[in-house]
């Protein structure tokens, strides 16, 4: 068992007391004998944009699914607003965390407004009817993401970038303090990747929600995110981008034959050899 020093314990309790969500020595994976990552102690404060980074197969999606409560943890505990996740009813959890996964093609036959309305599902009555309050949240989400012109369209008529914004609006309509997203910029061009991440940054600032997303866009994440959760070789660390850069952990993330981390520009570059 990993023993924390007094100072580490003090820092951890300071961090977790302010956090909306925190984990204690969480172990994630699909088989007890083969965990993906262990001893995960992360804390998600309000109004932060936080990226989960790591090489392919490191466990980014597994961590997101574990935090969202759809993949049970192997060990340790996860607390949301100081309640243990296993003590929350499904609907209570849906009022605290919204999850946007990459492939949600089953929703593409719906209109934009219908898809966003699904975000209100945890709050609607057994008839599934949206109340005035639901409609206010839906309208606010559409306005925050700036997709008023797309409202009447079918989701299968949208570009990937537009669909991504609609998925963000659905999560906003759910009105949870934490939004989790798996690769929100996949399939987008360079400009639209930056646009979506800027939008997420503004949402976290303006709504006080925390947005945690898995991404391969490490260069953009280092520039835009308040904090980074880095998964490497079964170990997870969370810190501000500049601290991770200073510690040199990014330099050791990938084999150095093709790319390297350039400290000056704080980004990965192609190696010249
Ligand atoms: N449902 C599952 N059952 C068993 N193993 C799984 C399952 N899903 C993923 N894995 C394994 O867990 C490990 C982590 O996968 P995960 O998808 O979390 O990584 P990732 O960092 O999100 O990867 P990528 O960047 O390629 O999307 C991989 O070895 C993967 O094969």
TrEMBL record:
Domain ABC transporter: from-to ranges: 21-258
Record SMART domains: AAA
GO molecular function: ATP binding; ATP hydrolysis activity
Pfam families in UniProt: ABC_tran (PF00005)
Keyword ATP-binding on entry: yes
Keyword Cytoplasm listed: no
Swiss-Prot/TrEMBL keywords: ATP-binding, Nucleotide-binding, Transport
Protein name in UniProt: ABC transporter ATP-binding protein
Organism: Psychroflexus salis
């Amino acid at each position: 068992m990993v023993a924390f020093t007094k100072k580490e314990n003090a820092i951890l309790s300071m961090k977790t007391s302010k956090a909306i969500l925190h984990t204690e020595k969480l172990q994630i994976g699909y088989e007890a004998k083969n965990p993906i990552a262990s001893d995960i102690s992360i804390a998600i404060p309000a109004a932060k944009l936080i990226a989960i980074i790591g090489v392919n197969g490191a466990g980014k999606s597994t961590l997101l699914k574990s935090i969202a409560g759809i993949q049970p943890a192997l060990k340790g505990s996860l607390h949301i607003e100081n309640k243990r996740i296993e003590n929350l009813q499904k609907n209570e959890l849906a009022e605290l965390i919204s999850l946007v996964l990459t492939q949600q093609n089953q929703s593409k036959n719906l209109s934009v407004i219908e898809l966003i309305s699904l975000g209100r599902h945890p709050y609607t009555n057994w008839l599934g009817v949206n109340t005035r309050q639901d409609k206010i949240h839906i309208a606010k989400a559409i306005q925050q993401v700036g997709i008023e012109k797309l409202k009447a369209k079918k989701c299968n008529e949208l570009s990937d970038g537009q669909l991504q914004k609609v998925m963000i609006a659905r999560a906003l309509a759910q009105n949870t303090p934490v939004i989790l997203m798996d690769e929100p910029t996949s399939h987008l061009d360079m400009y639209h990747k930056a646009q979506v991440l800027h939008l997420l940054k503004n949402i976290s600032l303006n709504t006080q929600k925390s947005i945690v997303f898995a991404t391969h866009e490490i260069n953009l994440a280092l520039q835009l995110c308040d904090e980074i959760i880095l998964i490497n070789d079964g170990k997870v660390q969370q810190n501000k981008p500049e601290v991770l850069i200073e510690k040199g952990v990014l330099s050791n993330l990938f084999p150095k034959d093709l790319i390297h981390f350039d400290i000056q520009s704080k980004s990965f570059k192609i190696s010249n050899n």
